[in-house]
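sry for the spam today, last one i promise. C-alpha cells for design, 199 residues
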C-alpha cells in the first residue's frame, strides 16, 4: 500500500510565464536585427499580443488597410488589430506571395512544437536565460499597454482575453514604479490647477 496515497499535493503559486523586461527585449533585438527571422517573430509576438500558436500562422492574407484580421485558434475569438509602426517596418521585407510570415528552413509554415523549439534556440543564441519563452512576449505586450495608460477593456480588445480577470493576471508585471510616478504626477498637475484657481 502506498503511504502517500491520501496526502494532498502542495500547490505552489506562480505567475506563470516570465514577462519579458525591456532589457531582455533590447538584448534579443541587438542580437537579431530587422531582416532576420527571429526579429520578425519577436515583432509579431510583441506588437500583436497574440499566442505563439496564432503568430506562427499569421500572413499577408490577414492584413487589409493596415489592420490585421484574425481568429484565435484557442478560443475562436475574432479580432481586428491595427498594425503598429514598428511591426510594419519589419513586415515590409516579407514577400507578399509567402504563405505565412514565418516559414521553416524548408519553406513551410511552422508546426506548434517546431516554432517553440526554434524560438527557444534563437533566445539562447541571444544569451537570454531559460525562463524566457515566446509566450512571455504576450505578457510583455500586455505590460506595455498597461504602462502606456490603456484601460483593461482596451488591453482585452488587443489580446483577446475572455475576462478582465485574465487581463489583470497578464498585466500584473506592469512596471509598478513607472505607474506610481505617473499617478503621483497626475495628482501634482491637478493640485497645481486647483492652486491657480484659488489665487
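last one done:
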Amino acid at each position: 500500500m502506498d503511504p502517500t496515497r491520501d496526502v494532498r499535493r502542495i500547490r505552489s503559486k506562480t505567475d506563470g510565464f516570465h514577462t519579458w523586461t525591456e532589457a531582455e527585449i533590447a538584448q534579443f533585438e541587438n542580437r537579431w536585427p530587422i531582416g532576420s527571422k527571429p526579429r520578425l517573430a519577436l515583432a509579431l509576438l510583441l506588437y500583436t499580443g497574440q499566442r505563439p500558436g496564432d503568430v506562427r500562422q499569421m500572413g499577408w492574407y490577414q492584413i487589409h488597410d493596415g489592420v490585421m484580421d484574425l481568429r484565435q485558434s484557442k478560443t475562436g475569438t475574432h479580432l481586428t488589430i491595427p498594425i503598429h509602426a514598428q511591426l510594419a517596418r519589419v513586415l515590409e521585407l516579407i514577400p507578399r506571395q509567402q504563405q505565412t510570415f514565418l516559414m521553416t528552413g524548408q519553406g513551410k509554415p511552422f508546426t506548434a512544437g517546431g516554432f517553440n523549439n526554434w524560438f527557444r534556440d534563437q533566445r539562447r543564441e541571444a544569451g537570454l536565460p531559460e525562463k524566457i519563452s515566446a509566450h512571455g512576449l504576450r505578457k510583455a505586450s500586455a505590460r506595455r499597454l498597461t504602462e502606456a495608460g490603456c484601460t483593461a477593456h482596451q488591453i482585452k480588445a488587443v489580446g483577446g482575453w475572455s475576462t478582465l480577470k485574465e487581463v489583470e493576471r497578464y498585466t500584473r508585471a506592469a512596471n509598478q514604479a513607472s505607474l506610481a510616478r505617473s499617478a503621483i504626477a497626475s495628482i501634482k498637475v491637478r493640485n497645481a490647477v486647483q492652486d491657480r484657481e484659488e489665487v
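Residues 22-198 form a domain with the hpI Integrase; Chain A fold (CATH 1.10.443.10). ok im logging off now
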